[in-house]
Design a protein that fits this description.
mainly alpha
Length: 370
């Protein structure tokens, strides 16, 4: 019963994170800062600021939390399956979807967004596929996790007697503060090399300080089930810190003149905005991550619909990109109403992504991959 409860609350978090990923990409389409297949300028300042704030908060924690959960289950999977089965399982569950998206769904998403007049969508998609146009889109996550898993296997084979386990004693404020200092410093230093927004080997390396750090923490937290032991006394102060920190970046930007056209670049370089953003990201993410771990675990008996959605999160994540672009293309005549279209297209994208995922989940043999 304890294992089932623990799995349920982490599954609910996966549903929440998947929903946020889909809405995040819809927000970028309608004016938030970021890269996506199809983008429109926000119809007004309120829409642009609101959608950018939504995406900035998401970016601070949601993909990092995916890596935290992935790391949490990695040692258990490795110990239960052994090296060979673990490697085969990772190649199937991460490698096959990455290839399918890279060579099929990625070109389809591009074709839906920018097919020239002399082509149909399908003919231009086929043209891109024949050219070997590889586009990983959101499946950069599966690709990165495959690389992280390979690193984990190498370390377990080279250093079999060493176990990196975090004890319950690390669940204290001073230890969390130390992690945030490492997080912020690592993010700033990494972005001196690769700014955020710039891809290197299909990956936006500028965000990977937190991704790798949280994956390692997840691995080290696994044996003692630390993610299932976050209590109110630990989470609540950091939730307050996050709430207080969120507006600070935009206040800083406003004081620096960002809303009047003065450059305010947080992507990389030896500047105060870059330093501020690196630590802002860490302090915002911390409270949200701890809050989700605590609240989802102690919440009342969940709505049964959560249990139906949980197995569909990964396939919904895989298929959502072309669906998001498709709904946006269909709604082009109304694209100037940014916030309204974010709600409408976001809702349609969620329903369609989980609906397609439900169909795929019934395909014989698909569950071994999805």
């Amino acid at each position: 019963m304890e294992k089932q409860t623990r799995s349920d609350f982490l599954d609910r978090i996966r549903v929440i994170l998947t929903v946020l990923v889909i809405l995040h990409h819809v927000a970028i389409m309608y004016g938030a800062d970021g890269g996506w297949y199809l983008r429109y300028k926000a119809g007004d300042l309120l829409s642009g600021v609101s959608l950018t704030l939504f995406c900035a908060v998401n970016q601070s924690f949601f993909m990092g939390m995916f890596f935290l959960l992935a790391g949490y289950f990695t040692p258990r999977s490795f110990d239960a399956k052994g090296v060979k089965r673990f490697v085969v399982d990772r190649l199937m569950r991460l490698g096959i979807p990455t290839l399918i998206f890279g060579f099929l769904l990625g070109p389809l998403s591009i074709a839906l967004a920018e097919t020239p007049e002399q082509f149909s969508v399908l003919s231009f998609c086929w043209h891109l596929i024949k050219q070997g146009n590889i586009n990983l889109g959101p499946l950069w996550f599966a690709y990165a996790l495959l690389l992280f898993s390979a690193v984990y296997v190498v370390f377990r084979l080279l250093l079999p007697r060493i176990r990196w386990n975090l004890s319950v004693s690390v669940l204290r404020h001073s230890a969390i503060f130390l992690v945030l200092m490492v997080w912020g410093c690592a993010a700033f230093l990494l972005r001196l090399w690769v700014p955020t927004g710039k891809e290197l080997g299909f990956l936006q390396i500028g965000f990977f300080a937190s991704y790798f750090l949280l994956f390692i923490i997840g691995c080290a937290a696994s044996d003692n089930d630390l993610l299932g032991k976050i209590e109110k006394r630990l989470a609540l102060p950091w939730i307050a810190v996050s709430v207080a920190t969120i507006p600070s970046l935009f206040i800083y930007a406003a004081l620096a003149g960002a809303f009047t056209g003065i450059p305010f670049d947080v992507h990389g370089g030896w500047t105060l905005p870059v330093v501020f953003y690196a630590f802002w990201e860490a302090f915002v993410a911390c409270g949200i991550i701890l809050g989700l771990l605590w609240l989802c675990r102690v919440s009342a008996q969940p709505w049964k619909f959560w249990n139906r959605l949980a197995p569909l999160t990964y396939p919904a994540f895989i298929v959502h990109a072309p669906l998001v672009v498709l709904f946006c293309v269909w709604s082009q005549p109304w694209q100037q109403h940014s916030l309204w279209m974010f709600v409408v297209v976001g809702t349609a994208s969620l329903i369609a992504s989980f609906g397609v995922a439900a169909v795929l989940h019934k395909v014989p043999g698909a569950r071994r991959i999805l």
